[in-house]
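Amino Acid Chain and Its Fold in Token Form
===========================================
What this section holds: a protein sequence and its matching fold, both as plain text.
Structure line: whole-number tokens from a learned vocabulary of local backbone shapes, matched to residues.
Purpose: to set a sequence beside its fold so the mapping can be learned.
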Amino acid sequence: MIYFDNSATTQVYPEVLKTYTEVATKIWGNPSSLHHLGSQATRILEAARQQIAELLGKKAEEIMFTSGGTEGDNWVIKGVAFEKAYLGKHIIVSAVEHPAVKESALWLKTQGFEVDFAPVDEAGYLDLQALENLIRKDTILVSVMAVNNEIGAVQPIQAIADLLADKPTISFHVDAVQAVGKVPTDSYLPERVDFATFSGHKFHSVRGVGFIYAKAGKRLQPLLTGGGQEGDHRSTTENVAGIAATAKALRMTLEKAEVAQKRLQAMKEVIVAGLQDYKDVVVFSQLENAAPNIVTFGVKYIRGEVIVHAFEEHQIYISTTSACSSKAGKPAGTLIAMGVPQKLAQTAVRVSLDEDNDMGQVEQFLTIFKQIYNKTQKVR
């Protein structure tokens, strides 16, 4: 079995699963309880918060836990909008955002906010001049993902930060879900970033746990109200075991990152070179200024799901770009925003690698692809 769908979710590290099991078994008190068991849970919770903050070069009070990337994106987009509505009701998000951001922004339109989508070029990179032209006096939020989940484009976060440097009334949110371990931390968390979203299962933690970075002094309204957990920012009993596991997974991922990125890039280059040998293959992902683990391509005239299932017959698992949209049968939104014709966009499939993959698997993938490509010749 070859698993090449790591942008959808990653396998939990055994050491991380062990941490989860031990905490869930031994530290099962509610952190809100006043007794000793509650205090034990609180210590684990705050130790995890401190570790995550230190790994990212931030303060512990700037880390707040969530259930994952979708909740984090919803919380920041909606929470900032309502918190800062007195300053204006104009929001800008890039045209290639994850649905958790895009749909949150569209929902805000029903609540009286105005939303503009900043365009990208034909390679999927944000048009900085167009973004600058969209900024207004009543703009309160700009949201741009660090690494595109569909084609792997690394967006110019530092350049956007520079653009917003003299605009303190605009909050800057970065969806960093696909960035952890794939690009340097400082590339998606420069000082000007006010909020960032993370999801544990994208870097070998358990599902159902994530966190946001919220710069000290920056406010957003709670998405969940109730018991007042997370400093009254997010009310719900904390998943202490999952949070402890996520802190460990982040440490392990970042410790391996520099070496892993080189290995991933080498595998990506072999895959791209192999695919370019076929005249009816279009490679949508770039080799430069892109995540080292994502290769998105299409076989002309063959829908992406056909290719996905053809590989599955050989126990090779890839996806049709975003896992969140694949079952809906929608073409890759990023490709449409790039100007790719819809019929060609519908051919797109995504290979997403992990440091546990190797060149032997890459060669097997290319061997099987040749067989699949030849079988589709009559259709093409």
About this structure: The chain has a mean pLDDT of 94. The radius of gyration is 21 Å.
